[in-house]
Amino acid sequence: MKWKNKLFLLTLIAIKLVDEPAPEVTIAQGTLIGKISSDGTFFEYLGIPYATTNSSTRFRAPGPPPSWTGLFKAVEESSSCPQNSFFGELTALRAKKPLQLFFDTQLLHLPCVESTIAEEEPVITDLPFNLYKNISKDIDVIYGSTSKEGFLLIAGDTNETLAERHGRYLFASDLRFSSDEEGFVTSKKVENFYFGDDVINMSQILKVAEFYTQLYFEIPAIFETECLIDKTQSKVYNYIFNYSGQRNFMKLRSGYYNEPGASHADDLFYLFRGSLIPPIFTKQDKKIIDYMTTLWTNFAKYGDPTPDWTNSVLKWEPSKKHNMKFLYIDDVPKIGSMPNNDAFHLWKNIYDKYRKTDI
């Protein structure tokens, strides 16, 4: 029956008939448990005894504050002196509810910068932005992501880990706001876009994965594509890998193998064999392997994944400014426009306004 009691308590909290508890805090006297204020912005610890007294010490200095073992329930206002006090309520502690980071990272979408290895020629020796600043020749690139990158990031989530994030910033620390309030309002806008009025818990885990996919992979790839098109003459070929087959090892590892789409890095297993990857694939997997390796090889040799002389059924064109084109790699590949247009404009507006420039 314990779960029924907990469900009943959560229901009472939801309709504001029971106070929602604030975190335990320890002061010199002992440990307190408080409540969250009615507007949800403060942790309140009320009625904390700050001195000892009795009838024999009337009109004398009070004694030291009492101490206690266990939890002191600081959820009720104490009796106040009849006169007004310049110092206000001395027996209450109100701490602003912290607006912490939902997912803390300084830079989004960083590649693996290679170390110097004897007798090996490195390819990515610095961040791409720095490489482009230091070279005179424009370099064409293939740039893309998988459709469900976020599966990898939700693999270890539970109701407890998700509950800790609800009501906090939904951003990484490459955004700067003029105040906590401004950040909180913007955060709520993002939360409403992805989750509506739903509480962030395991019933919403696929929406959490979508949030991760777009914010930390898909949107940054589009932003960087726009930057390259705007600042250089480089051709950028964009793709979304959505195929799900026997070599989607990262999705299998995430625990979401039966969901459609491809997890973070699943596309690599259709381009590279690798000594640690078992040679397992179906006939359809083999078609995807042949298709992708042909595209990438043509790009490396000719600078074009689908040269005219190949008579490819699909012509993979580079993206243009205000006209991005994506190759969607799936059972039946297709050419399409930018994915998730509404999400792109949401994040575009936020980053245009709040992006840090000194990270």
Automatic annotation (TrEMBL):
It comes from the Eukaryota. Residues 1-18 form the signal peptide. This is Antennal esterase CXE18. SUPFAM superfamilies: alpha/beta-Hydrolases. It comes from Danaus plexippus plexippus. Gene3D superfamilies: alpha/beta hydrolase (3.40.50.1820). Keywords: Glycoprotein, Hydrolase, Serine esterase, Signal. Pfam families: COesterase. Residues 22-89, 111-347 form the Carboxylesterase type B domain. GO terms for molecular function: carboxylic ester hydrolase activity. The keyword Hydrolase applies. The keyword Methyltransferase does not apply. InterPro entries: AB_hydrolase_fold, CarbesteraseB. Belongs to the type-B carboxylesterase/lipase family.
